[in-house]
Amino acid sequence: MKKALFASVSLCLFIAAPVLAEEKAFPAKLVSHAILPANSIIKAPADAPAHLQTSGKFTTADRKRTDALGTVPGKDGVRPTGLSMPFDGQAMQGFSGIKTMEDGTFWSLSDNGFGSKANSSDSMLMLHHIKFDWDNGKVEPIETVFLSDPDRRAPFPIVMEGAEQRYLTGADFDVESIQPVADGFWVGEEFGPYLLKFSKDGKLTDVIATKAGETDVKSPDNATLVVPANPTAKLPAFNLKRSGGYEGLAMSKDGAKLYGLLEGPLYLEDGSVEKADGLTALRIIELDVASKAWTGRSWLYPLSEGGEAIGDFNMIDATTALVIERDNGAGTAEKACADPKKPEPTCFAVPAKHKRIYKIEMTDENAGKAARKIGYIDLMKIADPDNKKRQGGGEGFYDMPFVTIEDVDVIDPTHIVVGNDNNLPFSAGRALDKADDNEFVLLEVGDFLAAK
């Protein structure tokens, strides 16, 4: 880890909050379950270059071009997932953030594509307007908005720099979280990390680099980092791990503030990470919407024991919010490999254990300190007494053993919506040999949402 750009001393002098009390679990009941099949491929816009009419052409281990459709098998570790690339079109996969609209529909988005800058130059960035047919268990697409940069707002050359239609790809940005507003969309992304603003028709209007206090925050994928020509010269520095940018983006109920939640912790000058109460902590950073400037205020989100990352973040009211917290496991314990260091196609190497949604409190009083964790629901064992599940779970319960669960928002005072990012075609947590579908569930969690 390089150290020239690490967080300043002032960044790490957070006043410790009181020792965390024992975390309280709340019940959750499955009300409905809707599924978008994994292999949901849509056509690129007719005016998109030929390069974007197919996707996944650079997904071999060595990133060499493969034009023959369906010849590169998708795998979750050593387990084939049953789908192969390249795809004839663009995959809808990767739902990584969701927002409930007043008319009962939802906005979501597809993330960067196939997992990295290097393999996603033919994966188009998209926002999806969807609704759920809860009675029949289906996800119904309403509209897809393909993101573009016709006005050259990106502060670096994009993949489609010289194209007539400057569509954005997963080699330009890694979009992970969304907040629709009257004139378009705010999006949190991971490569910079940046906060991005798009018009209603998907045109990029603003790119806001991240500052935590006086410290610039950069990941190794930040386009401003340049490797020197001389191997003995000092390498560029960064203070955030790859894929550690804005996995969560919430908006205050009055629309005046945005709160970006990093997926990974900031690294300090001594090589350690930010902590709160002895626990690894992630930064929540406040932006003033009107001025499009960072306010200097932030909070720390302490990961619980077993938690390794967050998946999504949305406000409940003026001071409380929902946060998905997860480990990096996938699959169920009863099908675990005997030796995780020797995975086989017939077992899950590292089963899912810690898949939770926390309710937190962020106030003026605890700004600069740890957000207060009020309690959580366990996504590995959701009550299903009425047998509403369409797949997964067991007798009387439903589970979400996915590596990435990245969608949560409030529906009403007693219900929330939750969904997974299926990392098509690489994640297989529901079955050993089948790519995960996009699953969305409606959960009854009245006590949880009302908890103080």
Task: Explain what this protein looks like in three dimensions.
The structure is a single chain. The chain contains 2 helices and 29 strands. The chain is mainly β and 452 residues long. The radius of gyration is 21 Å and the shape is globular.
Helices and strands, with pairings:
Blueprint: H1 9-12, E1 29-36, E2 41-42, E3 72-76, E4 79-85, E5 90-91, E6 95-100, E7 106-110, E8 126-133, E9 138-146, E10 175-181, E11 184-189, E12 194-199, E13 204-209, E14 211-212, E15 215-216, E16 246-251, E17 257-262, E18 275-276, E19 279-288, E20 293-302, E21 309-315, E22 320-326, E23 355-361, E24 372-378, E25 382-383, E26 397-398, E27 405-412, E28 415-420, E29 438-444, H2 446-450
Antiparallel strand pairs: 1-29, 2-5, 3-4, 6-7, 7-8, 8-9, 10-11, 11-12, 12-13, 14-15, 16-17, 17-19, 18-19, 19-20, 21-22, 22-23, 23-24, 25-26, 27-28, 28-29
Distance between the ends:
40 Å
Q: What is the structural class?
A: mainly beta
In DSSP terms (H or I, runs of 4 or more residues), the helix count works out at 2
The rounded Rg comes to: 21 Å
Number of beta-strand segments? 29
Number of domains: 1
| Poorly predicted spans | 1-20
Beta fraction: 35-45%
Major β-sheet, in short?
5 strands, antiparallel
* Average pLDDT number: 94
Helix content: under 10%
Shape summary: globular
